[in-house]
Request: fold
Amino acid sequence: MENSKPYCTRAGRAAFIDRRLAELYPETPVPLDHKDAYTLLIAVLLSAQCTDKRVNEVTPHLWAVADNPAAMAKVPVAKIQEIIRPCGLSPQKAKAIAGLSRLLMDNHGGAVPRTFAELEALPGVGHKTASVVMAQAFGVPAFPVDTHIHRLAQRWKLTNGRSVEQTEADLKKLFPREHWNALHLRIIFYGREHCTARGCDGTVCEICRTVAPERKRAVKTRK
Reply:
């Protein structure tokens, strides 16, 4: 007998979400404009507490000054900070950009390293940033969890949302490894377009209504 409640389990909900998002977003372009692993790394670093749109407005001005580690390592931190100021947290980000560029030259031959450990050892590069670079620059399966994914995974009852780390671990268990790189972008696209922080409270968008049809009250998500 066919299950009359196909979304009563995490696995059932995950299968529907995976399939539906692939239908909605067959193409998964990286939202941050870049031309190589280095410019992607810098763009992701700049995106912390800043919109992708703003980053894409700022980075052309930065690339005009320096778009590779060798050139960036020679740019004064004050100059970098002046250019990236619209992205917020410019003092910290400028120091990180200058510092990681020097380390890439000193320790990695000017190339962006291809391991999580080496990436996360660079200034300003946390696990999420490293995951984006590994996934989108090098094609290594990863599941970067940003605020959109953390929020939606809770609304869709895929995780208890106790931490970003727990959300990442839960999602990796639920979805096929070969889907991770495209899926994390699809969730972001859907979160921005349909299941926004204010536009959907867990009861409005198509996926929320499908995987949690019994829900009557807004979901209070963990941060």
